[in-house]
Amino acid sequence: MSREREKILIRNASQVVTCSGFAAKKGTEMSDVGIIEDGAVVIENGIITQVGTTEEVLKQLDINDYLEIDARGRAVLPGFVDSHTHFVFGGYREEEFSWRMKGDSYMSIMERGGGIVSTMQATRRIRYDHLYDMAYDRLDTMMDMGVTTVEGKSGYGLDLSTELIQLRLMNELNEEHPVDVIPTFMGAHAVPPEFKGRTDEYIDYIIETVLPSIRSEHCAVFCDVFCEQGVFSIEQSERLLKAARSYRLKLKLHADEIVSLGGAELAVKMKAVSADHLLHVSDAGIKRLAQSNTIATLLPLTAFSLGEPYAPARKMIDAGCAVALASDFNPGSCFSCSVPLLFSLACIQMKMSPEEALTALTINGAAAVGRANKIGSIDVGKKADMILLQFPSYKFLPYHVGMNIVGTVIKDGMLYIV
Ligand code: NIG
Ligand code: FE
After folding, report:
1. How confident is the model at residue 1 (pLDDT cuts 50, 70, 90)?
2. Does the model's ipTM exceed the 0.95 cut?
3. Ligand 1 centroid from CA 19, angstroms
4. By CB distance 3.0 to 4.6 Å, which of 115, 171, 288, 323 could disulfide with 110?
5. Is the CB of 330 under 6 A from ligand 1?
6. CA 367, 178, 74 angle in degrees (round to 5)?
7. So which residues are the signal peptide here (predicted)?
């Protein structure tokens, strides 16, 4: 990737797809992506200052001051927001993948002491600079696919010091890598071996020992919990989330991923910003989500990687939910952050329209990280986080299956050629 200067005029774009909005889009609103044909966008100091047709914008601009990008034959879109990842981890779990292909299940591997705890062991052992370099490279990979904001979870430390290391690392990356990184504390990702069989005591430990340090360092924005049968129950999750809320963290939940436990309902009750996974969400859960401001974040790459049924995206959107899409990139259930594949799975397997999928990865992704007022759409005043495709329409995203068609990324008004 190479980088160029800041005051930019993009003109003659075959389409500027604004995804305009300052809050999540729900239900039928998700189809409204806002297309400007022969579009132009002006960027100054990293902020979008004008959006319109090329003719309109050129009328009121002294083009000599600007780096001009002729976007003929190309579509201009907001940068993607990957609102659910676990990208900071040591080690890999390729053996587990082979076991699963032979019929082992994700949960049975976890019960045998593999799974998240195996990545915890590798993450506790790894040198900081190695962990940092790998995470940095992963952000590069995501940015090449058009991602300009990433949420990242801790949860591979499962003790105070290693959880803090993961969170500090994400804060450092937020400063040092062009992609914006939003750190989420997920100490309740699994029960570590030193608390085996004492899940309630582990929750006490998080509440009494870990959360106060996170609060005093201000190193996390969200708190998330793996609310799942055999991991953290509804009651344990609620107790933890209430404590997290009292420490001013915003809330997220891994909800109804493996069984229908009522995680979606708990997310709504706790006013969580998002409920994620939802492969086995109940009809009652869908109804509650539709009536709430909680975003339903769907992760089709995980369902695909685990060979599980997809979340009922169609049913949720038709019921009026605000749906976001994210990768869930992690070394276990989903070792992929592929935006191209994510798009195609959302459309081909979950029957989302290309417009709904685009909304889900832009403005609704932004809402899922509490930033819909700053990113997620091409609106005047928002951050200049944008992408230029190699094709004239956003419709090529799911259609060109599994292919990266992002040609240029603009992050905070800086130009990066992929
Ligand atoms: O979202 N389900 C829990 N957490 C991750 C998996 C993490 C791992 O297996 O390392 C998920 O799928
Ligand atoms: Fe996850």
Report:
1. very low
2. yes
3. 30
4. 115
5. yes
6. 75
7. none
- Ligand at minimal distance from the CA of 190 is 1
For residue 176, give the H/E element and its range: helix 160-176
Q: How far is the CA of 224 from the centre of ligand 2 (A)?
A: 9
Identical topology for domains 2-78+374-417 and 81-368: no
Ligand 1 and 226: CB distance under 6 A: yes
Place of tokens 């309902």: 265
pLDDT of amino acid 37: 98
How many Å apart are CA 131 and CA 37, to the nearest integer? 44
Cβ of 115 below 6 Å from ligand 1:
yes
In the structure, what pLDDT confidence band is assigned to residue 6 with cuts at 50, 70 and 90?
confident
Across the range 144-150, mean pLDDT stands at: 98
| Number of neighbours of residue 232 by Cβ within 10 angstroms | 27
Binding site for Fe(3+), by residue number, is 84, 86, 254, 328
Work out the percent of the chain whose per-residue pLDDT is above 90: 96
Q: Whose CA is nearest to atom 6 of ligand 1?
A: 333
For residue 111, the tally of other CB atoms under 10 A from its CB is 12
Task: Report the percent of the chain where pLDDT is more than 70.
Answer: 99
CA dist 369 and 274 (Å) reads 8
Minimum CA distance residue for ligand 1 atom 12: 333
Fold of 81-368: TIM Barrel (3.20.20)
Query: CB neighbours of 119 closer than 8 A, spacing ≥ 6?
Result: 89, 90, 91, 93, 156, 330, 331, 332
Count Cβ atoms within 10 A of the Cβ of residue 410 and give its class: 0-12 exposed, 13-18 middle, 19 or more buried: buried
Determine phi and psi for 304, rounding to 5 degrees.
Answer: -60, -50
Q: Please determine, for residue 109, whether its predicted confidence score (pLDDT) is greater than 70.
A: yes
Task: Give the position, in ligand 1's atom list, of the atom nearest the Cα of 277.
Answer: 1
CATH of domain 2-78+374-417: 2.30.40.10
Closest CA to 332 of 77, 117, 66, 164: 117
